[in-house]
Amino acid sequence: MKRRKRPSTAYEQWEACAPTKDKLQRLWHDLAAEADRLTPDLYRGLNRLLLWEMAKPEGPWTRDMKMGARWAAVWLGIERGKQRSGAALDFAVTRLRDTPARCGREMARKDFNAMERKIGR
């Protein structure tokens, strides 16, 4: 059986493991320092991607995290002019399809209403 070669360069070391939150944050600061050398669209895209990755929770999603994601997805649908009782729920179900918060219309409705009560709306 062949032994794996130890990474020698910084790039190889970076590629050897998934980036941690600290590595992502350092990369985000490096990106900000080089912002004037990038096109505005490229900077915005990379910035958004890094912020999205840093915001991801580590470990399994809790019930509250899933509930919050469902509430936010329905709320986003409402903000985009969709009806609260129909299209906004369908929007949330579609948006959350490939996430740990995936659900059907009924669960999206229940969690949205529960969260609205919880925050006092």
Describe this structure in words.
The termini are far apart. The mean pLDDT is 84. The protein folds into 2 domains: 16-55, no CATH class; 63-118. The protein has helices at 10-16, 21-33, 40-55, 63-79, 87-95, 105-118. The longest helix has 17 residues, at 63-79. It has 6 helices and no strands. The protein is an all-alpha fold.
Top keywords for this entry?
elongated; 63% helix; mainly alpha; 121 residues
Topology:
Blueprint: H1 10-16, H2 21-33, H3 40-55, H4 63-79, H5 87-95, H6 105-118
Helix pairs in contact: 2-3, 4-5, 4-6, 5-6
Summarize the structure.
The protein is mostly helical.
Helical coverage, percent range: 55-70%
The overall average pLDDT, rounded, is: 84
> First CA to last CA: what distance?
63 Å
Strand tally: 0
Strand content: under 5%
- Approximate shape: elongated
Question: How many domain regions?
Answer: 2
Poorly predicted tracts of residues: none
Q: What characterizes the major β-sheet?
A: none
Could you state the order of secondary-structure elements as H and E? HHHHHH
Class by alpha and beta content:
mainly alpha
* Tally of contiguous helical segments: 6
Computed over alpha carbons, the radius of gyration is 20 Å
